[in-house]
Amino acid sequence: MKVPYLKKKPEIKSCHNIEWEDNYSWIHQKNILEVLKDKTKLNPEVEKYLEEENSYAEYHLKDTKKLQKQLFDEIKGRIKLDDESLPYKDHTYEYWTKTTVEGNYSIKLRKKIGSSEIEEIWNGDKEKEKLKTEYFGVGDLEVSNNDKYLGYSLDTMGSEYYTIFIRDIKTKKTISKKITETSGSINFSLDDKYIFYSKLDENHRARKIYRHEIGNYKDDDELIFEEKTEAFTVSIGLSSDEKYYFINTSDHNTSEQYYFSSKEKKPIPKLIMKREKGILYSINSWNGKFYNHTNKNAEDFKIDISESLENQNWKTFIPAKDEVLIGGCTFLQNWIIRSETSNALDKLFVRNISNNTEEELIFSDEKIYVPGVSLIQKNRNTDDVYLGYSSPKTPSRVYKYNLLNKSKKLVKEQEIPSGHDKDNYIVERIEFKSHDGRLVPLTITRHKKTKIDGSAKLLLYGYGSYGNSISPSFSSTRLSLINRDIIWATAHIRGGMEKGMKWWKEGKLINKKNTFEDYIYAARYLIENNYTSKGKIIGMGGSAGGLLMGAVVNQSPELFLGIIMAVPFVDSLTTNLDHSLPLTVGEFDEFGNAKDNKEHFDYIFSYAPYNNIKKMDYPHMLITTSLSDNRVLFDEPAKFTAKLRQYKTDNNLLLLKTEMNAGHGGKSGRDGAIEEIAIDYAFALKISNKI
């Protein structure tokens, strides 16, 4: 089949007295954010190219159609399709969700406490059918405090512009005007007369908080807070004791918070502490005290406590620990549960408020696992919580746990209908030395029959940005590769917070290349220790993990058999220079500001995947993107693919697949998500000669 060709229209770009040529910049339309909402505004020439690439990818994956179907059935066969969540009690009802064999979206149910009569208050499949839309993204689903109203927000394009609706649960009628172009989150006031929400500006940034009166169809909503700094975005939430609303405004590494009483008839937000660059803080309220989760004078966070916000006198409650990330708190009447993360492993601690003693909650004998806690009921005067855990080989288990007498009862276990024996799998956690001697955690999961003699193919997953940590949790989908002798390894590289804030700082701004070096050194460690061999590694990452893939494949292509990158941030210099794009300004403290800082420009230019494509052999590559993605615009992977076709000197596969009706998260619905995974895995197995 003819290789797709994107016309070159050379443009000479310049910044800081440096010039470079970009042959494909013309595909970035000036009205690009409008295109995300309405694809009819897409340049027909660009649309034709994307369709040609889709046809080309389809042609070269046609021999995997049977395998894709097999993988789809396998992955779906590991999901209990007719499943129900654990119930959560408010003052009048128990609420829970369920999924069905036929459906792709969840159903929300409730029954009055003590009653057996079940009421369906939301059915995602029926709602999607009513709208006649291909993409159906639910942003929020909230029930009012009086249990009368359902607030929900929908994105029908994949562009993450959510429309909010308020419905009377009993009559099923909409009782307020629809609110467009919001971030999606909904907060009911305690008296259920209002909702609070955040509105997106023309650059898709949430910088205003509004109060909407339920039942209002005509008047403008009341603006209660506006953030003036472009890099900051806002959100609003209720405190644990429901006494205050807290407005948080922040970028990635600086925050500021405001509060007002939840009983105020006319909210007037009051500043808690003025923002300081590099300082993050988050206040919560419980039992007449205020708790501040902050990194001020505590690189890896601490928790301070004060009796008042008007006369603040902060004292240390949970002290800082070096390279141990102190997490936030879950409050009960008599208990405080909190988390810590160190060396890419999470821990839970419980404190008895009456005697101020604290102990770690340990409920698994596995060394590598992910714990979690959630509330059973709205009334926090209880000793019972849900405690759960999973590991790379153990499906999720949830216990009803009594904090007072330490009794536990298994109340939900992730069922794998097609069968699963955790003893068939081996999980290892090792640390390897990176280029500068830093020890980097690596989690390896393999089938016990897979030989460690260098013969195995290996998928190496990485992310490493925004302080996002990759937890070693269970994934039933990965078994489709692991059961076929492909080892799954996750590199907990710098740029995340697996080893605290320092781990993040060492992987961003002008330290960003540590992220790439850590990943490459992970690959070399796995080769040197016979988990795999040179040229047998499949790299995988999405979004900022796609930036990682692009950087490492330009730097060390010989290590890889293939690369799978989803919605990849590969034209990072161009995006960083365009301050009108949704995420750019808010990410100056993550990647730098190339337009206004020459050091940042030089550094980003030196690794930006699109700018560093070379005339050389590249491994097999599958690149996926979505037309309505506002986080990483589709033109980034499109330009990257076109330039790769121009430069690469090999005959390996280079496939670009664009979802024409999806966003940053890919297709909506359960089956849509499985289909995308099946394509990725079929590609991995095809290039591994395992069809």
Kindly name the structural category.
alpha+beta
State the shape: globular
Quaternary form: single chain
Strands in their spatial order, largest beta sheet: 31-32-34-33-35-36-37-38
Rg from alpha-carbon coordinates: 25 Å
Strand content: 25-35%
* Helical residue percent band: 10-25%
How would you name the CATH homologous superfamily of the domain at 11-76 and 419-687? Alpha/Beta hydrolase fold, catalytic domain
The residue-averaged pLDDT reads 96
Number of helices: 13
Low-confidence parts, pLDDT < 50 over ≥5 residues? none
Kindly report how far apart the N and C termini lie: 21 Å
CATH topology tier name of the domain at 11-76 and 419-687: Rossmann fold
CATH class annotation of the domain at 11-76 and 419-687: Alpha Beta
Query: How can the largest sheet be summarized?
Result: 8 strands, mixed
CATH architecture of the domain at 11-76 and 419-687: 3-Layer(aba) Sandwich
- The tally of beta strands, per DSSP, is 38
